[in-house]
Hints:
The complex is a heterodimer of chains A (292) and B (294). By secondary structure, chain A is α/β, with parallel strands linked by helices. Chain A has helices spanning 15-26, 43-46, 74-78, 103-107, 146-163, 179-185, 199-215, 230-242, 256-262, 267-270, 274-291; strands at 2-7, 30-34, 52-64, 84-87, 90-93, 113-127, 133-139, 168-172, 190-195, 218-223, 246-250. Chain A has a nine-stranded mixed beta sheet, sandwiched between helices. In chain A, strand 10 (218-223), helix 8 (230-242) and strand 11 (246-250) form a beta-alpha-beta unit. Chain B has nine helices and eleven strands. At the A-B interface, helix 7 and helix 9 of A face helix 3, helix 6 and helix 8 of B. The complex binds iron/sulfur cluster (4 copies). Residues 64, 69-75, 91, 108-110, 112-113 of chain A line the site of one iron/sulfur cluster (SF4).
Amino acid sequence: MKEIVVISGKGGTGKTSITASFAMLGGADVVVADCDVDAADMHLLMQPDYNFADDFYSGEVAYIDQSNCISCGKCVDICRFDAISVKKKLYVVDPISCEGCGYCARVCPTKTIVNKNRLAGKWFISKIKTGSIMVHARLGIGADNSGKLVAKVKNEAKEIALEERKGFILVDGSPGIGCPVVSSLSGANFVVLVTEPSVSGLHDLKRVYELVKKFNIKAGCIINKADVNPGKCAEIAQFLTENDIVHLTDLPYDENFTRAMVLGQTMVEYDHGKLNELLTESWENVKKLSSG
Amino acid sequence: MTDPKPLKIAIASGKGGTGKTTLSTNLAAYIAEQHEVVLVDLDVEEPNSGLFFKGELIHEEAIFKMIPQWDEKKCTLCGICTKVCNYHAVIQLGPSILVFPELCHSCYACSELCPAAALPMIPKKTGMLRDFQTGKLHFVDGRLDIGEEQAVPLISKTKKYVAHKYGHVSIAIFDSPPGTSCPVMEATKDADFVILVTEPTPFGLHDLSLAVETMRALHKPFGVVVNRYGIGNDEVITYCREENIPVLAKIPNNRKIAELYSSGKLMYQDFPEIKKSLSQILEYCVKEAKGGRA
Ligand code: SF4
Ligand code: SF4
Ligand code: SF4
Ligand code: SF4
């Protein structure tokens, strides 16, 4: 079982559209994991049936039981996150600011502060239209550590893939370079970097590749909207050569990406011309590289 | 634009790549034609706004977060610190106490509850803050070090720097990180007005609806700017109408704009209709924010 992760540094590069096309091409042999939990969009293209749904708890949040509060103010003094304030003479916790460190509960003289588990989101296992299974999630508002939810989604996908003897896990990775993307990358066999030829595209590519290097994972790159800026494209291509990143393909600026999305389709369902060909070729390549 | 300064406008979106940076940079440059303005890039994992300005670096500093440091000589190995840390950032290994800085949230619990004062808090670098100037435009960005996991402390420190240094400037624009989790809440929580940028596509609509929930949870006044208007469908516009959300501007889909962006160029000078949109957006923000403050 091989694990392929698609990431892009920043959003809006067409990462999800490309991942969805790969999922379609891979069909029943590919378990999909949507680890872009902060802005999960894969479900819009995959027709999931939400066959299984469960709450996801992560971390804690403090709660003050007013009946035993003696208004000593100790909790306010020690909270480093300004999460406790006095409202209408009552000491209350703002759950959005509370980091769930538990310090206040430890110092409260009347033990009237309790830590509750924080509902951080929901996660799902769905049958999808590719004939396979997708694990996906929805992060709650202001949830603190999407990295943990990402790890959950990935691990569930891994278990399913092992149990059902699937050949691949395909991960739509999280953006950025923080904790969620670290969780997305750990354990991957191959990383597909999706970028676009812009100053910010190249800049983000370099930053996210720093991280990929730390994990020592083989990587390939797809330059989307390549014809928008041929000069930048050449610069990116050079960066790829210098760093031994496989240049998988260049995709043209094509509004069919959006048209397909509006219909809830992947590119390879909508387009039967050049784009389809390029994506199919890339997928075959990615499969080979991840196994090699 | 008088009291209380500055007017804080946050620009956010459910996900990246919707044109958030394009809007922040163009809006800031447009305002700077007449007024002093500070643009703050709080997208600390992927700060990009700086690529659009060639300013003079006027200040640079490392940003630190506080973590405990074990003092072997004072420690009695009572084990309290390992029990009080909710993030498993302090563990005991044989006769040693180990601290994992990436996991530490700087709550001070272990340090202050240690009976032997053996865990003093010390600063650890998590990122860099840089401050540039070009004409009337000040540009500040925070940049998280690679491998650092927590964006929130850096965001909050960057905001503090701006509040302290640019209290006299009339408008501050905050380019916020994408998403709905802690970093975006931290970046937008004390804004006077939030602009949500989206695209008229199914992905755009879905991500917008999440961003709207976030802003409602924060009780923030907000409006929507639709970028790449003309591609996709009308569902975003319909959604805004049904939800009573003001659409501040529609920026047309145009390959030329994508090309300018790709070369790191501002676009509003080349497109009079966009300049007009910027002035409308600004006017709306000023009006709304004042209403909210009164
Ligand atoms: S748990 Fe920590 S962050 Fe939350 S209110 Fe208590 S001291 Fe503050
Ligand atoms: S520490 Fe406990 S008793 Fe004191 S104000 Fe806080 S909740 Fe009330
Ligand atoms: S609480 Fe202080 S004295 Fe006790 S084990 Fe930790 S560092 Fe050592
Ligand atoms: S300061 Fe708080 S989070 Fe950091 S190690 Fe100590 S108890 Fe844990």
